Predict the 3D structure of the following.
Amino acid sequence: MSRYFSVAMAGGLVAVVLVGGSAVAQKAHVLATVNDAKWGPAPPLVPPGAQIAVLSGDPMKAVPYTVRFKFPANYTIPAHSHPADENVAITSGEFFMGMGEKVDKTHATSLPTGGYAMMPAGMNHFAFTKGEVTLLLYGTGPVDFKYVNPADDPRNHK
């Protein structure tokens, strides 16, 4: 009886693994070149002037997401934090980031093309550009910005 139980359990485990594997196999894949980006205005979480292209997922839901952001020259994102970790990979240009409760351009780190940053949940940071920058932003949503100074929050400027 115990041998039958072991064989039955093993068969059940294989069935579960196969069903689980097929569910994963049915998930859509994404292959996107830079030229495939469908740019639109960034949401009002960031100051006006930025553009966004969603590559996968939905940044406003509790799921993994990846987006491209394009920032113009001389663009600034005031000090803020996020409820989840934020991953940033620079794909063109030079992006500047720093930690703290206000923008301090003298204490920012230059991230050139190929640079990467990970801002832990709840860490206050700021960012700015000197020239145009394109980057990948990815993590698990929902994305939100908590500005250190509420007057810096573009959602309060309607």
User: Anything to note?
Assistant: The chain has two domains: 1-28, 34-156. Residues 1-25 have pLDDT under 50 and may be disordered.
